[in-house]
Structures are given as structure tokens and as C-alpha cells.
Amino acid sequence: MAHPKQRPTPPTRRAAGMALIAVLWIVAALSLMVIGLAGTVRQQIQIIGNQRDQVSGQAAGEAAIALALQALQVAPQRPAGSSTLALSYGGLDIAVELAPLNGTISLNGAGVPLLAALLQGAGGLDAGRAQALAGELVAWRDGRPDVDPTVPGAASVQARRFEATEDLLLVPGVDYALYARIAPLVNADLNTGQVNPLAAPPAVQALLAAAGLQSPPAGGGTDVYRLQARVPLEAGKILLLTQDVALGAALAHTAPWRILRADRQILSPAA
């Protein structure tokens, strides 16, 4: 005699509860993944927006510097002191400050007293250490590179010089923190031992006055200028572009000036 088929036993309440808990865990995990992914996407969008803002700001700043250089090139008399031009480019109001580079301290021309004043006033060193390190800078600058004396032409090798401000880091005793404090106040493109007070930034004027090393005002303009463009960015930040430029039609094939050094910084709203 055939037995009737037994109907499947319905799931118990306990099994149904476990299944519901598993589903809830899966939903929670997926929710966390979605939230994390959304946060990452927002962060990437913000980074891309900031980069785009900086790239467009740099292009506008470089264009403003070029406009200032054009005005400087055709000026009947080049300024001996610092000045500021208010320019507008790409819908941005950009202030371009320009000053002869001889308002900064020449690493290749300054003597020990001036370098010591720099290291003490701007570098934060005590007087004794500043004096000693200034002597080391001059000794490094005036020394000759290590050359095998038996090599032909070794006797005619010229003394070392600072080719760029970053060369300061090659001198024993100059760390990056010290370099960062004094770098905006120096140049490696001039050989003068004096500073033009009309073009000197306030920090240089202060250390000259403190050391009693005031120089006579320059009689006229120069061929080498430092230009700084302040470009407004989002969130109140400022893109500071700095270029040291040598004027002269024979210096470049594409423009009547040559860029000697370029730098950029992002300044916070409080700067």
C-alpha cells in the first residue's frame, strides 16, 4: 500500500529569524560600503576642483606677470624701488608686486657682516653662530671645487659660486629650516655686496637697520627684477607666484626677458 506524500515542514520561527538577521547584516554592510564610496567620490571631486582652481590660477598669474613685464619693458624709466600693479585677467583681480632684485641680499656678493645680519635677523641664529656660519658661507663661495691638480686646466678652475639659492643647503650648518627662513630674502643672480633700500622688502630693511648696514639708495633701475603675483583662489586662499626675471631682448628667443627662477606657494586666508 502506497504511503501518501508528506508535505515539507514549514521553516521554524527560529530559522526565519536567523535569515532576517543575515539579510539585515548584508544590508548594513552594503550601506557602509555605499557611504564610504560616496565619501571617497566627494573627496576626489574636491581634490580635482582644487587642482583645477590652482592650474587656472597659475595660468592667470603667469599671464599677469607677463603683462607687468611688458609694461616694465616699455617704461621710459625702470623703477629703482618696489611698486604694485593692479591687473585683471580671466575675471580675476591680481596684484603684481615688482621690485629690483638688488633689494635682496646677494649670496655671491655679500660680505660676512651682511650675511651674519641675515642669519641672525631672519635666520634666528645667535650672534656668535651667525658670524661663524657667515664666514663658512663666504669660504664655501670663494673656495674652489675639488679638482685633480694633474688634470689639464686645473689651475684655471674658477672659484665656486651659488648658482641657485638652494645651493645654501650644500654648506655644512645650513639645514632646511634655516634655508626656508632666509631664502625669500636672498638671490644667487647678482654679485653686488650692497642692498638697494628702495627695493628691499620690510624684512631686509629691518635686519639692515638692526645691524647698522644701511646702503645708499640706488640711482636708477636695473635689469633684474623679482615679480610676485597674488592670485585669489577658492576658500580665501592665495596662490603666490614668484619669478626672478632678467630683462633684455638678447636673452630669449620668444620674449625680451628670461626667467631666472620661479616658485609658487599656496597661502592660507590668514597669510
Write the topology of this structure.
Blueprint: H1 13-74, E1 83-89, E2 92-100, E3 105-106, H2 112-121, H3 127-142, H4 176-182, E4 186-187, H5 202-211, E5 224-232, E6 238-247, E7 257-267
Helix pairs in contact: 2-3, 2-5
Instruction: Please write the string of helix (H) and strand (E) elements.
Output: HEEEHHHEHEEE
Number of strands: 7
Mean pLDDT: 83
Gyration radius over CA: 32 Å
Number of helices: 5
Task: Provide the helix percentage.
Answer: 25-40%
In which order are the strands of the major sheet placed?
1-2-5-6-7
* Spans where pLDDT lies below 50 across 5 or more residues: 153-157
What is this structure, in a nutshell?
With 271 residues, this protein is of the alpha+beta class. The chain contains five helices and seven strands, in the order H-E-E-E-H-H-H-E-H-E-E-E.
Overall description:
With 271 residues, this protein is α+β, with helices and mostly antiparallel strands. The protein folds into two domains: 51-103 and 220-267; 105-194, EpsJ-like (Ribonucleotide Reductase Protein R1, domain 1, Orthogonal Bundle), CATH 1.10.40. It is built from five helices and seven strands; from the N terminus they run αβββαααβαβββ. It has a five-stranded antiparallel beta sheet with strand order 1-2-5-6-7, with helices on one face. The radius of gyration is 32 Å and the shape is elongated. The chain starts with 12 loop residues before the first helix and ends with a strand.
